[in-house]
Write a structure and sequence with these properties.
The structure is a homodimer of 345-residue chains. Chain A has 345 residues and is an alpha/beta fold. The first copy, chain A, is 43% helix and 10% strand. In chain A, strands 4-5-6-7-8-9 form a 6-stranded parallel β-sheet. In chain A, helix 6 packs parallel to helix 7. Chain A starts with 6 loop residues before the first strand and ends with a helix. The relative contact order of chain A is 0.13. The interface between A and B is large, with 60 and 60 residues.
Chain lengths: 345, 345
Amino acid sequence: MRQPLVIDCHGHYTTAPKALEEWRNGQVANLNTPDLGPRVSDLRISDDELRESIEANQLRLMRERGSDLTIFSPRASFMAHHIGNFETSATWAAICNELCYRVSQLFPDNFIGAAMLPQSPGVDPASCIPELERCVKEYGMVGINLNPDPSGGHWTSPPLSSRSWYPIYEKMVEYDIPAMIHVSTSCNPCFHTTGSHYLNADTTAFMQCLTSDLFKDFPTLKFLIPHGGGAVPYHWGRFRGLAQEMKKPLLQDHLLNNIFFDTCVYHQPGIDLLTKVIPTKNVLFASEMIGAVRGIDPETGHYYDDTRRYIQAAALSDEDRFQIFEGNARHVYPRLDAALKQKGL
Amino acid sequence: MRQPLVIDCHGHYTTAPKALEEWRNGQVANLNTPDLGPRVSDLRISDDELRESIEANQLRLMRERGSDLTIFSPRASFMAHHIGNFETSATWAAICNELCYRVSQLFPDNFIGAAMLPQSPGVDPASCIPELERCVKEYGMVGINLNPDPSGGHWTSPPLSSRSWYPIYEKMVEYDIPAMIHVSTSCNPCFHTTGSHYLNADTTAFMQCLTSDLFKDFPTLKFLIPHGGGAVPYHWGRFRGLAQEMKKPLLQDHLLNNIFFDTCVYHQPGIDLLTKVIPTKNVLFASEMIGAVRGIDPETGHYYDDTRRYIQAAALSDEDRFQIFEGNARHVYPRLDAALKQKGL
C-alpha cells in the first residue's frame, strides 16, 4: 500500500499578518459609524507577507510533523458573528475568505480553502449563500464552516435541524461540500471559548442531529464535527442508549453516513478511545495546529496538537491509517478529491 | 482486603409516586395565581407508597447489580429552577428534599440524602442557605446539588468562580459537604437535556474552575462533576495544555484536590479512559440509575447504566476499585463517612 497523503482537514489562518486584526479592530470601533470605519481597500497585505506568515508557521510545522495538505479556513475565534450586523459579517467574511484563497494560490500543494460564512444572529442563513457560492466557484473552496450559534454563547438560533438552515444545506448538497460545525468566540462569561464553548457546541450539534430526521431530508449532507466530536465518543454508550429510547435507528444508520469526527484530541488516550469507538470511516485526520493549545506536553516532550503522533501510535491497521489520513477526507470533501485527481494525485 | 461497600454517589428519586408530579403540575399551572394552587399540605404520599416506589425500582436494581448505598437526591430534571420565582423553588425544593429524607429513613442502610437547592434565576444564591441548613441539620443530608445554570440552558448566571456563589461555598466548608454540580431541564431548544445540556454543564463547570483561583479561596471546597466529567477526561490533554498556556499550576495541584468525577459513563471504553486518565483518588462510583438511559445495550446484553460492570472490567487493582467504590466517597462526603462509622461500618 502506498503511503497516504496526510490531509489535515482542520486548519485556520491563526497567523495572519497583524494588519488583518487591526482592520477588524477598526471595523468594530466604528460599528455604529461605518462611514468612518476602514474600507476594504484600506487593508493591504502583500503576497510576501502572506508567504512569510505561512512559511514560518503552518508550513514549517506541517513539514516537521509530516502532513501534506491542510484544508484552510479563516480563524474560527475571529469569525465573531455576534459582532455587528449582516453587513459587518459580510465584509469581514469576504476579507478573511479572500486571504485564505490567496494562501491556497501561493501554496497550491499545501493548502486548499474552506469558507467562513457571513452569519449574523437573527439573520436568515440564506443570506450567506452569495458568499458561499463565490468561495466555491471563484476560489475553488471545498467546504464551509457553519456556526450553529452565531450569538457567541447565547444559543439564540434554532437547532441545526430547523428548516431555517435548509437553504444552506441545499447549496451544500448542490455543490457537494461538507460543513465543519464550528462556533466562534464566546461572549458569554460562562463559557471559555476553546475550553468549553467549542466542545459544548460539538456535543450540542451531534445531539441536534440525533433527535431529528435531518438526514432523511438530506441523505447526502455531510457534517464534520471538530475537536474529536466534543464529548460524543467518550459518551458513545449514552448516545446509543438515548437514540434507542427515542426509537431512532442504530447510530451507524441514523447518523454515521452523514456525521464525521476530526482528530483534534490532544492526548493519546483520547485518540485511542476515538479510534476504538467510532468506525474508521468516520474519523478524519486534523490538528487545528497553532490553535487553542500551542504548548509542548511535558509528559511526552511533543506538541499537544501534533496529533499525527497519536494516530501513528494508535492500535490501527495501515489500511485504517490510510483512511484516516487521506481516504476519508477524499470521501467527505469530493471537491478536494477532484482537485487532487486533477493534479494526478 | 475486605470487600468494599459499594456506594453509588449519584442517585435521583426518578421514581417518586405520580402524586408528586401532579402536585408540581398544579403549582406550575398556578404560577401567577398561587392562592389557587395546591398547598404543601395537599400532597399526601404514604410511607407504603414511598417504599413501593423504591423497592420495585432502585432497591431491586441495587440488589441485582450489587451496590449497597445510594446518595439520593431529588430528580435532577424536575428541579427546573427556571420555573417561577424563589418562592416557587423554595416550596418545591422543600417538598422534594423531604421525600428523599423520608426514603433515607425508611431504608437507612441503603439511602442517604443529598439536597436540591431552591435556586432561581437572578436570585442571590445566599437565599438557598436556610434550606441547605435544614437538610444538613434536620435531615442528616451529606451533600448538595448545585445548579450552575438555574436559567435552564440560557446560562445567565455568573461563573462558579464569581463571589455571588461564595455564601454557598462558605456553608459547604462550614458543614464539610460537597456539591455535585448538576443542571436541570433545558428550556433552550438548542440543548437536549440529558444528551447535551448535562454534559455541556459538566465541561463548563470544570473550565470555570480551571480559569479561576476559586480553590485558593476555598482550599477544602469539593465539587463532584457528574457524567464522568462531561468532555473533560476525553480532552484531558487539551485541558492540561490550556492550563499551561494560562500559567496555572499542573491540574493535579490546581484542581484535583477539589474536583472529583463520577462514573456515569455508559460504555466500557469510556470508563477505561476515565480510570486511565484521571487519578483513582478523583473517581467516585455512580450510576444515576433509572435516569437518562434506561435500556439494555444490545452490544452487551446489560443495562447501559449498570456501571458497576464497567468498573469491575476496567484495568484496576483491587485497591483502586476499593477507592472508587467506597474510599473516595468517604473522603469526599465526610458526613457520610461519619454516619457509616456510627453504624460500625
